[in-house]
Amino acid sequence: MKKSFLFFLLGIFSTCTVLAQGTIVKGSVKDAVTNEPLPNVTVTIEDSGLSTKTDALGQFIFNKGIPLGEQILKIEQVDYTTKRYPIIVNQGQTVDIQDMTLAYNASDKKDLYIISISDDQLNSEDDGLTSNVSGLLQSSRDVFLNAAAFDFSATFFRPRGLDNANGKVLINGLELNKQSTGRPQWGNWGGINDLQRNQEFSMGISPNDYNFGDLAGTNNIIMRASKYREGGRLSFASANRSYEGRLMASYSSGLMEDGWAYSLLASRRFGDGGYIEGTLYDANSFVASVEKKINDNHSINFTSIYAQNRRGRGTALTQEVFELKGRQYNPFWGELDGEIRNSRIRRIEEPILMLNHYWDISEKTSINTNIGYQFGETGNTRVDNGGTRLVTFQGQDSYIGGARNTDPTYYQNLPSYHLNVDGGPTAYDYELAYQAQQSFLNDGQFNWNELYTANASFENSVYAIQEDRIDDKQLMANIIFDTELNDNIRLNAAVNYRKLSSENFAEVSDLLGGSGYLDVDFFSDENIQSTDGVLTTAQSDIRNPNRIAQEGDRYKYNYEIDANVVSGFAQAVFKYSKVDFYLAGNVSKTDYQRTGLFENGYFVGNSLGQGPKAEFENFGAKAGATYKISGKHLLDFNGAYMTKAPNIRNTFANVRQSNMLLDDVDSETIKSVDASYIFRSPIVKARLTGFYSKFEDATETGFFFSEGAGSNLVQEAITGIERQHIGAEFGIEAQVTPTIKLKGAASVGQYTYTNNPNLTYYSQEFGTGRAIFGDGTTNLKNLHVAGGPERAYQLGFEYRDPDYWNIGVTFNQFSNAYVDPSALKRSAAFVIDPELYTDTQFQDATAGGDLYVVSGGEINDIDPTIAKQLLQQEQFDDYMLVNVVGGKSWKIDDYFVGFFATINNIFDQEYKTGGFEQSRRVDYRSQLDEQTNANGPVFGNRYFFGNGTTYYLNVYVRF
């Protein structure tokens, strides 16, 4: 593979040619108010494909491939109103336009959208259900991406059906996607919007200067102190979405005469609850960035980010619960001593430190060296109701205790449970269902007092708050090389290294008034005991049997994950008068290793110490071209072939308890192509793109309790997944008058599974073995991949008055969204009678341990027509959302004062943004009972519901 990559690079370099030009266009840009030079302004010769940026002194220059005759020079910068200057270019002559000015655009619309997306849509990165594509965090000049980021994101919409693990997020050139999930954890830099305005987004697999990238694009957030304009900003925001209020203050010095620059920011976001009940918000963020320009060639920048975030969580609801309590209902909170307390709290506290060195070797060659270190902790709390006390009789241990499920939506608390009886419900069953309904309607919240009362009655706590902790330490380093080989060819290359040391454990966060928590598995039913009478399988750590855990102690599981990633990429970009094209390639090596710190009773000999190392070698190649039919009409093509290592979560089996690796996990293979037609004129801009992506050998894992897989908590591993994403996206805008803009966008796709992948289950009940049903596959072929609506359409307009006020309205239609299907329900488990699982066969597994092939007696009264209906994937109803945005600003002396506001879903439309099928009762008879139950299924699909009417208001002062 390495030799092939070297030949690939030589092929890139050998195509280099030289083309000299004598015509020059240059100039400078200043702030219209302060008259100070503006760095990092984008300067474009329209309809030519030529673009550059101003330097620290506000200067720019074009000296190659410049079209002759009458041209339009466009200058634009974030936070400023775009300007266009007509110029005439003659062969061999210089056009020099000095001191062009840009006026600050006080509407500051971009800040609004960053807040909306990062806080409302991107803060549940742990499960990916509300995560959006990374590049959409920044405002894009692309009409379609603007619609996707600002209006479609509230619906779990994913451009081209891609998860945000398919995109890369970088800060100052260092990748920050989490190795555990592959996704960026937005909470690590939440609340620092004012210092994240300088962003470079490469759409899709198009070339970028820092990284090979991925299908969903690459977004590099530039946080260099010298790149911020001098000045400060104070703002206050009020909302009813995720937080209730936000205060933010920032100040930047700009590049001073002594070569120093600094930027500072502090913010606080707070609230007792957002749109969903009981979802508290408590976040504080601080940033300091300092840069020293040593000389004309060297500059060093240091950036530190501290973003602490604590949030109360909500959950998906069944249709039964939704109809009883509504979409704002959250079962995780209840009152304690007159205050709202949420049992599910997510904490993030992972500071980031970065040191960057910028070396301009010459006008055309530079080297950027970066090193970063991220450390800290994330935690998720929940109620542990398995507390017990130890009883020893005649030298033999037993455990007494355990407690009922505390979830108010636990199936035995709901009316449907009392109506799901053999032979149909009786009058008494209806009475019980009515009582359950009234009790749930009148209360239905978490009862904290019951937990404290129960703990006071026992020797040890039967209830405790468990926090699942991840304490990460990650070192990041890279060297990025950039050079212009000649007037037409630019070369980028980089070498990257990432090292992760991750501690994972459960911690007793709160004993809820008890004196201690017995660290054993109450559900262990082992009959064979060790010679001293201790139940082996019940022990989380057999080296510390029957330990009483106190608050702050680690219990249940405790292990470390070490991960290393080494990668390199090279890219050549060629620009000519009619055709631009690029070639790029990368190679990488990834390894993961688990080290157990507890010896689990179910996995004696396979849980303590270092486990086997998982290693993956990967490569990728991509290429693309833009053909310029004319200044207005362009054709763009991109293609890629790459392999990707699975993330940590999708590599290990029962990772909390053992060192086992998944049996047949492999690198994912991705093939992708897209083609676009682009039209650009002074009035109309449009893009139409068709895309196709094929994914092979993908892996997905999950944990849940199932009655169909041994009536216990299992890890489900779906391996060898194949799926295809095919569709088209379209965006168009027309500046019909100087103040009115019309716009439209559309995305039409189909994202489906194209094979029946392998399905395997791991559980402590299976020990070091694994279980499959029937032939070990699940029938997912032709089902839709869940992930928001496959079809989205927008019509809208914007009015921007010369007197500095503006308003915009968008109408957004969504359809073809599907529930996430249960793989277990579509396996052989659907046709096997659960009462006949005793016919399980045992075979030696090729990977070690036992393979449990679950067969048993098949259900013999299956109606094929009914079975097809039971297995039908649910499609959500279509819906429309109407959003309004507007603002006003004033200039008072040297201050800019203004406000902007949005109202989303102004007609309070009810809609489902996503959901999943439960896998608890999956056989044909159980499903038939579930779906014909008088009051709905007991274990029905669980749904995520979109917000109703919400608002966001921001008032700011800039100086």
Features:
959 residues, mainly beta, 4-stranded antiparallel beta sheet, 9 helices, globular
Q: Which helices and strands, and how do they pair?
A:
Elements: H1 2-14, E1 24-31, E2 42-45, E3 50-53, E4 59-62, E5 69-76, E6 83-89, E7 94-102, H2 109-121, H3 143-152, E8 168-171, E9 174-175, E10 199-202, E11 218-221, E12 231-239, E13 245-252, E14 260-271, E15 281-293, E16 298-312, E17 317-318, H4 319-325, E18 333-336, E19 339-342, E20 345-349, E21 352-360, E22 365-384, E23 388-393, E24 396-401, H5 415-419, H6 427-442, H7 448-456, E25 464-484, E26 489-510, E27 517-518, E28 548-549, E29 554-575, E30 579-596, E31 609-628, E32 633-644, E33 668-680, E34 684-706, E35 712-735, E36 740-753, E37 758-762, E38 770-773, E39 791-801, E40 805-815, E41 841-844, E42 850-854, H8 864-870, E43 879-892, E44 895-904, E45 912-916, H9 924-931, E46 942-945, E47 950-958
Parallel strand pairs: 1-7, 8-11, 38-42
Antiparallel strand pairs: 1-4, 2-3, 2-5, 5-6, 8-9, 10-11, 12-13, 12-47, 13-14, 14-15, 15-16, 16-20, 16-21, 17-46, 18-19, 20-22, 21-22, 22-25, 23-24, 25-26, 26-29, 27-28, 29-30, 30-31, 31-32, 32-33, 33-34, 34-35, 35-36, 35-37, 36-39, 39-40, 40-43, 41-42, 43-44, 44-47, 45-46
